[in-house]
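Quick one: structure for this chain?
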Amino acid sequence: MKTFKRNELSGNPLNPDNFVGTGELKRMVAEPDVKTFHVTFEAGSRTNWHTHSVPQLIVILEGTCWAQRKDGTKE
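Got it. Here's what it folds into:
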């Protein structure tokens, strides 16, 4: 089992190719085959439309957001 605290993770600014606005991206697992991130967004920030080759799990810890599948309705 791996446990960690959010303040122990090193972060990077959001890449403007993938995001609009400001926030921070923290990689939670160092293994290349495991993509687990903790992402924070400032109000009004968002991701650019993109797809993933594997399923994506989004967990909202605070605030509100919109999510949408291609050709789907906003949830």
